[in-house]
Amino acid sequence: MAGLLLAGSAVMLTGSPAMAATGQCSGNRIEHLAVKTQSGTVKGYLNLYYDSRTGYNCARLDSAGKYWGVSKTMAVTLHSCKNKTSDYFACKPIKVVQDEGRYAKYAGPVKLYGKGHCIAASAVIQPGNSEAVRVTPSFHC
User: Residue 20 is inside which H or E element, if any?
Assistant: First the structure.
């Protein structure tokens, strides 16, 4: 599932336990993107943050509606890209961080240094047999 979204990634790390315990991202939220099934059902939101003081980006995947509080497979991934200009189709990853597991409320946060580079992110929520996916382009350069 989420591993397929990472094909070709150079490095894969997981979010730190201390960060996952708090569930918070520092900085300003720069994106709030619906994570939907092919039929359009929103199962969660991919929230991206940037802290201009530290140069770090952060991502967290939040469950939505009736999916909040129900254990399900969730994955959130954040890429720091080599490219320094937006590209809808390409992110050549420098680093990749991911948090994947069974969660009731949210996955992540995951963070990585991104100052001077574009980022890309992906999110997957799979309660039961129905999967919701969101993949961003390389952006926020």
Answer: helix 17-22
Name the residue range of residue 124's domain.
2-135
Task: Indicate the residue type of 68.
Answer: W
Q: How many domains does the chain have?
A: 1
The pLDDT tens digits for 21-34 are: 347 999 999 999 99
Given a contact cutoff of 8 angstroms between Cβ atoms, the answer to whether 109 and 19 are in contact is yes
The answer to the question of residue 141 being in a domain is no
- Domain contains 140: no
Radius of gyration of the chain, Cα coordinates, nearest whole angstrom = 14
Determine, yes or no, domain membership for 61. yes
The residue length of the chain stands at 141
Helix (H, G, I), strand (E, B) or coil at 122: strand
Residue 115 domain-assigned (yes or no):
yes
pLDDT in tens, 119-133: 999 999 998 888 999
**What is the distance between the alpha carbons of residues 3 and 18, in angstroms, rounded to a whole number?**
24
